[in-house]
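Cross-posting from the modeling subforum.

Setting up a comparison between two proteins and wanted a second pair of eyes on the formatting. Protein 1 (sequence, then structure tokens):
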Amino acid sequence: MNGSTRLFKALESVYMIAALGVIAYHGLSVFWTFHGAMEHYTVHLGAILLLIALHVAIAKGQLAVGTTKTAWLVFAGLTFSLALISTGYLYVSAEELELSQPFISDFQYLIGFLLILTVFALNWVVWGTALTVVCVSAALYFGLGHLIPSPVADLGFSPSVVMSYLAGMGGPRGVYSFIPLSADTIFLLLVYGGLMTSTRVLDMFEEIGKAIGNLVRGGVGYSCIVASSLVGMVSGQTVSCIALSGSMTIPTMIRGGFTKDQAGAVEVMAANGSQIIPPVMGLGAFLMAVLLGISYVEVAAAAILPAFLYMFALAIAVYSLIQASPKIPYERLKVDWGKVLWISPSFLPSIVLIVVLLSHRYSGGMAAVAGSVTLVGLSILRPKKYRPSIKGVLTGLVNGALAGAQLAMILAAIGVVVQMLVTTGLGTLFSQLMIGVSGGSPWIVLLLGMGIVLIIGMGLPTPAAYSLAAIVVIPSLIDVGVNPLAAHFFGFYFAVFSAFTPPVAVGVLMAVRISQGSFGKTCIESFKLGGVCLMLPFFLVAFPNILEFPNITTETLTAILLFCVATLMCSAAVYGGFVGRLVTWERLYMATGPVFAVMYFQWQEAWLAALLVVLLVGFGLYRKNERRKVLQSIAV
């Protein structure tokens, strides 16, 4: 074993011990208070920075050679040291800074600068250039914006005030804006998600998907939807969900007759859908609760019916794709029912316990700890064939800690942007500009908002894109009369949808790596599958009572029925498949469905609703009659 190998072995051991230590600290913090709030959040921020720095040293250093290897090790060592120094000082001086902020000394200014520099540097490695450029630009504008000509110049703040706000000195601002959410809720929930992998829950999801897929032709497509939705529901990110579940589902779909581009698109849209399914919703539910000042339970309950509508639309689109693709065969996959039988009794109690605790207003951290202990404890009782190993459980914990640290990095970095937008008033300026350009028309504001959020989301993780939308776009929607909860769902959904929107389309990029298909064609297939889903946020604005689950009214049921009808007709028109292949005039006929649906969303006239239903029922009867004629001619 050479010196380099020994070094990385040692780093891996340190990394594992550190990750387990961070998990232990957060788990114990749920039940005991070790210090003040700012000290706790500083420990969390410091811990995630140190974990990321160690991970960079291992992941980047092992793959590199020569001077590049040395450069990565130096980078990791430098960021590790800066994180330790800056957060260590902020921990020791927390009480002093609470009293003196926003007026800080030159040394404290330097400490704040080093902290922000470390956060930006590690974000660049973990999340790429796009997010880093946005954050650096925001910080520069906050400090130097007064030098820019009006009307976008800021008021001009002193350097000490700028640094105090950006570095969160003395309060949860800047990099600390969303750290309480990460420290108290999200981190431990993602540790639970890591345990789901190591306790083989994801294997069970795959078998359930196979069983559902065996019921119909092209069932592997539905199998992908089920498996990816369940995986992404707790993984927290579209890209990580595609990387995790897509490695299984995409090759299976290709073998099952789907083209490479179709397989990649189905995975992308399923992973996108997983971000809007409670309980985790790609962290959106927790961010939305903080931004709206309501409980997580209210947000999760509001998300139930929209999530159902999205998944229904996706399932119908896949059905139409299969109907229009005769090369996709009926294929039965072997299902290992033993996995389902032995793994589900450990998973179901754990996830139910988490949901129950959250619904009773317990903290996300406590729910995650209880769910994790239950999952591991019951997993040990399985037969040896299905039982996780100790090493596997430890690996799952470490992977969960890494996922939590990576998402905390997003929250720390985007906190700088949010702080700048709020303090300088630039976010308000954007909102006023949108209203001015639209002339106060709600639908024009909605269209502008959709475009802006999709642009904001290019290359950014969903939590970052949604956080920016909440400051830049959503206030203008509320100002023109949109229900606040519906406005936030509108912004959040388009932040999610940006993962399949060109020119960046990070979700498509990840899927193409696995499928080896074409980026452009996979984007097109994604739009064919999910184009109708772009109507869903507008639908929620038109009918905000859909977000009031379980208080379902007749108006809510009518709106849901019409959305489903419009979805079915739109998918049939796009793919030319509806109980068989459709000819050109039939596709044009079906295309009238979404047109009348949009008209109903605008005017909400009963005759439009009735016409939409009559169109679909009439076409169904026509197709049934044509099918009977064909069968009679064959019989003759």
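Protein 2 (same layout):
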Amino acid sequence: MLRNIKSKILASIQNKKINIFLLFLVLSFVVLLVLKLSTTYTNTITFKINKINVPESYLVLNDSSHTLKITLRTSGFNLLKYYFKKPNVDIGFNENIEKSKDYYIWNKHQGFSDLNLQFDKDIEIVSIIPDTLKFRFDVNAVKKVPIKLNSKLSFSVGFDLLDSIKIVPDSIKIIGPEVLVSEISFVETDTFRLKDIKSDIDSPVLLNLPKDNNLIFSENSVEIKADVDKFTEGHLKIPVTVINVPDSLKIKYFPKKLYVTYYTSLSNYNSISANDFIITCNFNEVEKESEYLKPQIVQQPKDARNVKLSQEQIEFIIIE
């Protein structure tokens, strides 16, 4: 019994010694790391270039070889961040850069101040290689093209669009070489799919843009908007008028009225009346020896759709 207690006490003391040793080991490593990172180093780092503020009328052609090797002098703490992500620097094309016939020419003497502003104050730029970069450019064409909606829509029973679908914006601007821009006359959306629609539509959709790095597009998505309402069928009895009957003739025709059926939204149903429709028969269009007039709807309200007549012919007789 006493022997077991003694063994447990010795084991506990030994574990504490190990834990204390590990703690001091970790602390020593942390202190050493802090001292190392606090030391000033001079390192050369390769930076990728971001081209910014390029005039809209020009296109700087892509060149993956455009990098700058910048030697920096600073603490290890400041250098550490450049090893955890791909470093890059901005080169502006609106100032501190020269333009020749075919190239934009950047040199480190003109561009040093812009570069220096992109680094922390306690980071010193020692050297920049190369001291000159040439960016070939081409003249851009600018073209505005319409957007075409590619959609697959289905509505809940009795629901439909109140008006046409709106695309916002309805066109985009394309910037790029003339030879490429001239081939594009419109841009389609990705397929816009909605099922069982019974409320207004207001949703984004991506554009199906050409995959070409030399082209710039003002938008990569648009908004699809539309008003939706419940629809119903309406029926009205409308008088028929015969026109262009010669003064020398008198005719009788029947029926004098025809039913029209139409499709309209519930919100507009009560605003539609018989006075909104006009049905005429043109006597000049009667075929020789025919006994029938052809009725036509010459006026109907804009909110009525799929308007149909109850019959396609009207009988008439000439009175002697």
